[in-house]
Amino acid sequence: MAPSKKSCVWKFYDKIEGAGNSAKCKLCQKSIKSCGNTTNLIGHIKNVHKAAFRELNNESSKNSNIDSNTINKNTQSVTTVADVQPSTSSADVMELTEEADADKISDSFKDEGNVPVPPAPKRQKSIMSSFEEIYTFSASGNKALKINSALIYMICKDNQPFTIVENEGFRNLIKVIAPHYKLPIFKEKLSNIENLTLTTDMWSETMSMRSFLGITAHFGVGNELLSITLGVYQSNERHTSEHIAEMLLKTCTE
Q1: Is the pLDDT of residue 239 over 90?
Q2: Considering the domain boundaries, does residue 63 fall inside one?
Q3: In Å, how far are 38, 222, 224 from 96, measured between CA atoms?
Q4: Bridge partners of 15?
């Protein structure tokens, strides 16, 4: 038989005789271990039977409207506890306390959309996984290549200058969202180059009749040949050697 002083949750359970602290759910016939309290019983109703859990919350709310002075007297006097329930044994007092705690737990879960979820314990990364993450942000890493592609798309789509990667605010943004990613700043690469070659490309758009001048730097790092676009300028001047020399000097000065 269930305890003489029943929690609201016992309306959904039958005590299993001879099975210790176990009860059978009336809704799904599943056996649940009560472990001497109603926490597991409430948890099963909450996780499996949502409608029944809402009904349980409503009944718990009604039963929780007890005068606080009466509760204080009940905890101070065994005689007063006897007025609340027939038995005055320590087990009965413990059962009453557990039921009150269970009601408080039930009240805290009234809003199913805002059920508090305890944060998952943080696990320290292994050395191998840390190195793998750092590698993905290296020059040839998968994440670095994706960020480079997104950065190029942003510059072209929003008509941003290549020097945007040198802006302090932009560099701080990248540092926050991807600390291991190193921005491809061409000035830093060129600072350690002893020799390089500059080439110019000139072309016109037939539809808009606009002319452009592009300047590219070529240099070697070890056995690798690299090229960096230093600038692309709209040119309204004739493509004379004097004009090209002027644009080359302007680019190198910048």
Answers
A1: no
A2: yes
A3: 11, 79, 79
A4: 23
